[in-house]
Prior knowledge:
By secondary structure, the chain is an alpha/beta fold. It has a domain at 64-139: Nucleotidyltransferase, domain 5. It has helices at residues 2-11, 21-41, 88-101, 117-129, 146-149; strands at 64-68, 74-77, 84-86, 107-111, 136-137. Strand 4, helix 4 (117-129) and strand 5 (136-137) form a beta-alpha-beta unit. The longest helix is centred in the first third of the chain and has 21 residues, at 21-41. The chain starts with a helix and ends with a helix.
Amino acid sequence: MAMRNAARHKRMKLKSEINVVPYIDVMLVLLIIFMVTAPMMNANVDVNLPQANAKSLADKKNPVIVSVNADGNLFLTLEGAKKEPVDVATMQAKVGAFVKANPDISVLVAGDREGKYEGVYQVLADLQQAGVSKVGLMSQPQGSDAGNARK
C-alpha cells in the first residue's frame, strides 16, 4: 500500500504555474468595451478654432453671393451687381439657373456675425435643392473692420 501512495504522489505532482487564459479573455473583453465607449465620451468638446491669414481664392468670374443678415433676410449678388433682397423661391430659381448655365461658377454664402447659424444652414439646404453641388462660406480676413464688410 505504501507503494501505491508513493506512485500516486508522483503522478499528482502540483503545478506551480498560473493559468492566465481566463485573465486574457477578461482583458480582451474590457479592451473592446473601452474601444467602443471611448468615442462616445467626446461628444461635446469645445473647440477654439485658430485664426489664419489665408489668401482668398482667385476666381476668373464673379461669384454668386447669397447673404443672410442678422434677421434672416436673404440678399443675392449676381455677377458683381448690387445686393438685391430676395425670398427663398427667387433665390433658388436664380442661383439654379446660373449654376445650370455655368457649372464652374462659384457660389458663396455670407452670414452676418450677429445672425443665427440656422439661417446659414437653411440657405445651404435651399442651395442644395436648387442643384448647387459646391458652396463656399465667406468670412472677413483677420484684423479687417466689420463695418467695411457691410457695404
